[in-house]
Amino acid sequence: MPELPDVEGFKQIASQSLKQKISTVVVVAHPGEKVRTVQNISPEKLKQACEGLFFTDVKRRGKFLILKLSSNDHLVFHFMLTGYLYYLPTGQVVPPEVAANSRVVFLFTTSSQLIMADRRNLGKLFFVNDAQFNVVPLLNDIGTEPLSPEFTFSLFKRLAAKAGARKVKDFLVDQRFIAGIGNIYSDQIMWQAHVRPDREVASLSEEELKLIYQNIKKELQLGLETVLKGKEPEANLLTVRRKGLHCPRCTTPLAAIKRGATHSYFCPQCQK
Ligand SMILES: [Zn+2]
């Protein structure tokens, strides 16, 4: 699932389309698949609402990407598990893997395109005005941006005190506490901090809290820099090494805890 660094990458991609006049919007219907990306407006109305306008600004909030239209309306994207944005410059051809999974295509008068593609077809796109952000589930309740100056250690400790008996993993991925951390970066942060994902937040020492806090900043920043250089961050990350493989620090086989539809990977030797 795209997390803070990945969505920052999508922001960079979307920014290439700013100020270009939109000629039309196509909500793509693939044979045998439901058209379900666009949430609160019909494809026809979305098209009417965007044609002739241009994007004036792009922002990220947690795992959401918000594109502002010259009408002052907003398009809010959530990429769920496999969604992403692709920018096609003028004169180029859409790569087959993007075309096969394209869900919404913004065509510009320059004939460049901004494409939301999504293999699993779970991503969402909302059309809202300034007063309607509450239409988007969670967006108004989202917590502090972890790379912002407001995310201090004292704030983190106050959030941890609220989380109490919850598991560290659940605390880190709860968007109402901290914005933008998901399964992969939370595993990475806990591995770096030597803390097991199933520890209760209330059981963490001041030193463990400090290590988690520092690694939230460090790992997200590292992921962000990697993504913005156009590289894949996966090579740096523990999670993709998967169960059965070994801890890069102590060589113990990694273990997994099932959590809903996902797994938390950790080292049973060096995470306590
Ligand atoms: Zn280890």
Describe the structure in your own words.
- Strand 2 and strand 3 form a beta hairpin.
- A four-stranded antiparallel β-sheet has the order 1-6-7-5. Strands 2-3-4-8 form a four-stranded antiparallel β-sheet. A two-stranded antiparallel ribbon has the order 9-10.
- With 272 residues, the protein is α+β, with helices and mostly antiparallel strands.
- It is built from seven helices and ten strands.
- Bound molecules: zinc ion.
- Zinc ion (ZN) is lined by residues 247, 249-250, 252, 267, 269-270.
- Residues 247, 249-250, 252, 267, 269-270 line the site of zinc ion.
Q: What attributes characterize this protein structure?
A:
21% strand; elongated; four-stranded antiparallel β-sheet; 272 residues; alpha+beta; binds zinc ion; 7 helices; single chain
Question: How do you describe this structure in short?
Answer:
The chain has 272 residues and is of the alpha+beta class.
Summed up, the helix count is 7
Order of helices and strands: HEHEEEEHEEEHHHHEE
| Poorly predicted ranges | none
Count of individual beta strands: 10
Described by the principal axes of the CA atoms, the overall outline is elongated
Spatial order of the strands forming the largest sheet: 1-6-7-5
Q: What gap, in angstroms, lies between the N and C termini?
A: 26 Å
Percent range for β-strand residues: 15-25%
Hetero groups: zinc ion
Radius of gyration: 20 Å
Mean pLDDT: 94
The profile of the biggest β sheet is:
4 strands, antiparallel
Share in helix: 25-40%
- Structural category is alpha+beta
